[in-house]
Design a protein that fits this description.
Elements: H1 6-9, H2 15-28, E1 34-35, H3 47-58, H4 72-85, E2 95-99, H5 100-112, E3 118-123, H6 128-135, E4 139-144, H7 155-161, E5 166-171, H8 184-196, E6 200-204, H9 225-230, E7 231-236, E8 248-252, H10 255-268, H11 274-285, H12 289-310, E9 325-326, H13 331-337, H14 342-353, E10 355-356, E11 358-359, E12 369-372, H15 377-392
Parallel strand pairs: 1-10, 3-4, 3-5, 5-6, 6-7
Antiparallel strand pairs: 2-8, 7-8, 9-12, 11-12
Helix pairs in contact: 3-11, 4-11, 5-6, 5-10, 12-15
Bound molecules: 4'-deoxy-4'-aminopyridoxal-5'-phosphate (PMP) and glutamic acid.
Residues 14, 16-17, 38-40, 102, 127-128, 176 line the site of glutamic acid.
Length: 393
């Protein structure tokens, strides 16, 4: 038998992608499965964005490599986007683009984390952070939050987690999976704490444009010059423009950090697919109407489905403010059905109710399941109906 690396043996497969793969497999066997597992908008990429890519293919610009860190025009587009939505612009040497925000996270851990460096991660956290840190020999340090404190870390918790090895704090607001958003005041306190202790802030802002019912996304990097210097922003076009398949992500940070990440990109993927870069330029700088249309659709789904989900026996759900996930606590539901393990409970829901959710286990939340509402209302209503039937049987 082939001897696999310790690295791969110690890592978990992405639970979101695994759940989605299992749902697709059952569907291909003819089973009636409602897929609420993987987090991706259900809209087609807006036409003006498609057209920009098609043009670059047809005029030949997309035939060739670009600079590894991305086209200068793409860096300018990111700068313009930041001017519009963050309130500050950036220089080209502060931007590096690559193959999805997910890979950019990996590249930045590879560029910054040495063996034993600690990264503080508030839980529940998005599934890939911890494994990517471990792949780079870093140590994820989890700080637990729950429904009781609205899934937010306190300064006391951060202080208790801090050691002389603390290198970075991960912040994902709006959060996948909880949909929680930190307020400006909370971010100021966290930002100043990080500056005081020279801990880098990794701000994963990917859901920043998807906020509902008057909630506001405040980028931590916009709060002060000192906090900005301490912050590495990760963002992308997947969620905002319904472009998950295009694989465009980017990092905005100090030139020294950007140069280090660019080096990793140059030795791994080379540049992000050139046609996708042209699409991203149009997404970031072109008409933004479709973003608001999609945001409103998510908001309607959230407001319609939330009260229905709250009625499912044993499901305790906090109403999310952003992103597109419900993250109900199912402790009581598991007790009612005789389960102690949330992954087994999620599998039973898939097998018996035909509803594909994601186990909270991969998010560091062993009492929760994640349900994406980035799908049409009929599917969502039917899924909740099936969950109710499943719980009542
Ligand atoms: N960060 C978070 C919090 C996410 O949920 C995702 C995936 N949905 C990503 C990063 C990566 O996004 P992508 O690779 O599609 O740009
Ligand atoms: N991030 C999305 C999710 O949480 C897409 C899948 C993934 O990249 O893990 O479902």
């Amino acid at each position: 038998m082939v001897k696999l690396s310790r690295r791969v043996l110690e890592m978990e497969e992405s639970v979101t992608l695994a759940a989605s793969a299992r749902a697709k497999e059952l569907k291909s066997q003819g089973r009636d499965i409602l897929e609420l597992s993987v987090g991706q908008p259900d809209f087609i990429t807006p036409k003006h964005i498609q057209d920009a890519a098609i043009k670059s293919i047809q005029d030949g610009s997309a035939s060739f490599y670009t600079v590894a860190s991305g086209l200068p025009e793409l860096k300018d587009a990111v700068s313009q986007y930041f001017e519009n939505f963050y309130g500050y612009s950036v220089e080209r040497n502060q931007v590096v683009a690559g193959t999805g925000a997910k890979f950019m996270l990996y590249a930045l851990f590879a560029a910054l984390i040495d063996s034993g460096d600690e990264v503080i991660i508030p839980t529940p956290f998005w599934v890939s952070y911890a494994d990517q840190i471990k792949m780079n020999e870093g140590v994820p340090v989890f700080v637990t939050t729950s429904e009781d404190n609205h899934f937010k870390v306190s300064l006391d918790q951060l202080e208790a987690a801090r050691t002389d090895k603390s290198k970075m704090l991960l912040l994902n607001s709006p959060s996948n999976p909880t949909g929680m958003i930190y307020s400006k005041e909370e971010l100021e306190a966290i930002g100043n704490w990080a500056v005081e202790h020279d801990i880098l802030i990794l701000a994963d802002d990917i859901y920043g444009r998807l906020v509902y019912n008057g909630a506001e996304f405040v980028p931590i990097s916009s709060l002060s010059e000192t906090i900005r210097k301490q912050t590495i922003v990760v963002n992308g076009v997947s969620k905002t423009y319904s472009m998950t398949g295009w694989r465009v992500g980017y990092v905005v940070a100090d030139p020294e950090i950007v140069a280090a990440i660019s080096k990793i990109v140059s030795q791994t993927t080379s540049n992000l697919t050139t046609a996708a870069q042209y699409a991203a330029i149009e997404a970031l700088t072109g008409a933004q109407d479709s973003v608001e249309e999609m945001r409103q659709a998510f908001e309607e789904r959230l407001n319609t489905v939330y009260p229905l989900l709250a009625e499912v026996p044993g499901f305790d759900v906090v109403k999310p403010q952003g992103a597109f996930y419900f993250f109900p606590n199912v402790k009581k539901a598991m007790e009612m059905k005789g389960y102690t393990d949330v992954t087994a409970f999620t599998t039973a829901i898939l097998e018996e109710a035909g509803v594909a959710l994601v186990t909270g286990a991969g998010f560091g939340a062993p009492e929760n399941v994640r349900m994406s509402y980035a799908t049409d209302l009929d599917t969502l209503k039917e899924a909740v109906r099936r969950l109710k039937v499943f719980m009542e049987n």
